[in-house]
Amino acid sequence: MSIMKIHGGRSLHGEVTIGGAKNSVVALIPAAVLADSPVKFDMVPDILDVHNLMLILQSMNVSSYFADGVLQIDPTKIQTGHLPSKAIKKLRASYYFMGALLGKFHRAVISFPGGDNIGPRPIDQHIRAFEALGAHVTESGDTVYIDATENGLIGAPIFFEMVSVGATINAILAATRARGITTIHNVAREPEIVDIVAFLNEMGAHITGAGTDVIRIEGVDHLEAKQTHMVIPDRIEAGTYLSLAAAAGDGILIKNVIPQHLEPFTQKLQEMGVDLTINDHDIYVKKPHQLRGVQIKTAPFPAFATDWQQPITPLLLTAQSESVITDTIYPQRQKHVGQLQKMGAQIRVNEQSQIVIDPTPHLHGAVVAAGEIRAGAALMIAGLMADGETVIEETDNILRGYDNIARKLTDLHADVEVLPSSD
Ligand SMILES: CC(=O)N[C@H]1[C@@H](OP(=O)(O)OP(=O)(O)OC[C@H]2O[C@@H](n3ccc(=O)[nH]c3=O)[C@H](O)[C@@H]2O)O[C@H](CO)[C@@H](O)[C@@H]1O
Ligand SMILES: C=C(OP(=O)(O)O)C(=O)O
Questions:
Q1: What is the CATH number of the domain that holds 136?
Q2: What is the pTM of this model?
Q3: Does ipTM exceed 0.95?
Q4: Which cell locations does it reside in (predicted)?
């Protein structure tokens, strides 16, 4: 695992350009195997999740080439076989090959995915969707066997018991090539879902309702990419830089954002007293003065994302009154708390599993570990604010989802270096 070294306390300024959304691209890549033609994506972030998905593609005889943000995938010679469980375990989104391979071949055999360790992450709703479409699903050890080879996939109504990003996308991937009409109820409305549906429709799929809570899909038997699909900007990366800019910046311009996707986040910053200039595609963050603590509750889009709760935490430490975070999606997502305490942060978990953040005028450098991607983002911002050196171990978790992180921070005049892992 790589490590990140930060010499904190510098005043950061300049501009940063946000990359394509991790949570879009990690679904777009598996979705590409549904195509009967080569596929091209632009604005693809250079993150470990993308490289691991490319390894999984290779194991299926699907060639891919990634340079300068453009990813080309040729699934026309795809062969199914045993997918490499080491790469599958390195990320969450490998589960999208379940829906994609089921859609394409009516059969998928795949081990349980990895991804961030942020509390229980069952996939019962995904399986429920595959079964509704006529697949037979069995589990043996660490492997899931999904089979609809006898009768094929048949469009059907699907009712989710809870709102799940992954289950929504997996159901869409499978139903896109099912026979007949599928309606999926109580779906997630995240912008990344709208992006994946846009990509599938560009290739000839018939999907409506993305961004609402009911999606309707008329299955098609051929998908062909006729244009390059541009990935949407990463709203979680943007939130991370917004927090960093307000916590340690002296005037930072954040470029390539969709402000509507960021509203729950920017509204919280404004409630704290951060002065933002929000334009059509960029946001300027002024160095703030007196900030107020706020109450934050995470919930599915369009509410405040769980993936933002850790990145905003270092900024909350700079407020002059207490803040409280309630994560309704992952109530145990607290890996950053103990690590921030090592840096002198006044932060704790109360009896209701809420995270309570008290005013902390100074942080000091320490050796800490990024237990998961967004905990890593919180530690990175804290390290930039702190006096002295911070060493973040397990930095691969940050590299899973933060595009060109060392270069982007250095361009903002931070003293940061990422030392690659020896394995
Ligand atoms: C690759 C990707 O896009 N990851 C995102 C996705 O993860 P992911 O798609 O895994 O998260 P879900 O939206 O599925 O999870 C939401 C909640 O539903 C529960 N659940 C989910 C599925 C299921 O079958 N059964 C079940 O109980 C989960 O435990 C969780 O409490 O959405 C999360 C919630 O916004 C984000 O934190 C992740 O960054
Ligand atoms: C939880 C996250 O990612 P994943 O679902 O890929 O583990 C995240 O991006 O914050």
A1: 3.65.10.10
A2: 0.97
A3: yes
A4: Cytoplasm
